[in-house]
Write a structure and sequence with these properties.
This protein is of the alpha/beta class. Helix content is about 35%, strand content about 30%. It has 7 helices and 10 strands. Strands 6-7-8-3-9-10 form a 6-stranded mixed sheet. A 4-stranded antiparallel sheet has the order 2-1-4-5, covered by helices on one side. Helix 3 runs parallel beside helix 5 (about 145-160) and helix 4 crosses helix 5 (about 145-160). The longest helix has 18 residues, at about 175-195. It is globular. The two termini are about 20 Å apart. Residues about 230-240 have low confidence and may be disordered.
Length: about 240
């Protein structure tokens, strides 16, 4: 079942009065439980595609459909609610709140969802244990290594049990060993929780681990290869909220 659909997606930006194309006629379908990557050089359009899927940007033409919802038909409140409850984000620059501890950064999403204080602290602590940061829950971002900060970002992305995680160059600021550990963690979460992961990357290691790899050049997907197959968990196995 397709959880993400892009239909003739076009995005261009106005730069000094000129229309500059970033995405040009992309058609793409991502199924539930996939572990997929869009690879390409800087400026190829891969981050723009993730931003369009996440509703952080609007297409110039075409459709973005997430879990059956055409994003163009959603109000700002509905779009914000979809992002809050269904989509987790992992950014290249971590985007942690510097004045909050690791635990507080992770539980912030649950706070926005209106989860009770005791419940959100319990869930946040549990997820941090799962990503190997039990001893660092009370540390601030400045007290954590880059790899630890990115693990906090992953924990924050999955604590609300989203159906989709969009990860924009998640290994770009990490050394090779730390990056490999992070991707292994995400792959484990993909398999055990049936979360759909979609990466943008130019990291060969991420490309190698992806089970589906799409290459993009100048805003157009030029290849789409499924390298491995697996039997995803049925949707009914997911915890209902």
């Amino acid at each position: 079942m397709a959880i993400i659909e892009l239909n003739n997606l076009i995005k261009h930006y106005d730069v000094n009065g000129l229309s500059v194309p970033a995405v040009r006629g992309v058609n793409l379908s991502i199924g539930e439980g996939e572990f997929a990557a869009i690879a390409g050089p800087s400026g190829s359009g891969k981050t723009t595609i993730l931003n369009l899927i996440g509703g952080l940007d609007k297409p110039s033409e075409g459709q973005v459909i997430v879990e059956g919802n055409n994003l163009a038909h959603l109000s700002q409140k509905e779009l914000s609610d979809l992002r809050l409850r269904k989509i987790g984000f992992v950014f290249q620059a971590y985007n942690l709140i510097p004045v909050l501890t690791a635990l507080e950064n992770v539980e912030y999403v649950l706070l926005l969802q209106g989860i009770r204080r005791e419940d959100r602290k319990t869930r946040a602590a549990s997820i941090l244990r799962e990503v190997g940061l039990e001893a660092e829950i009370n540390r601030f971002p400045r007290e954590l290594s880059g790899g630890q900060q990115q693990r906090v970002a992953v924990a924050r992305a999955i604590v609300s049990e989203p159906t989709i995680v969009l990860a924009d160059e998640p290994t770009a600021n990490l050394d090779q060993k730390t990056g490999e550990s992070l991707i292994e963690l995400m792959h484990h979460l993909n398999r055990t929780k049936n979360i759909t992961f979609l990466f943008s990357t130019h990291d060969p290691m991420v490309m190698d681990r992806a089970e589906r790899l799409m290459h993009i050049i100048d805003g157009q997907i030029i290849s789409d290869v499924r390298k491995h197959t697996k039997t995803p968990k049925p949707a009914s196995s997911r915890k209902k909220r």
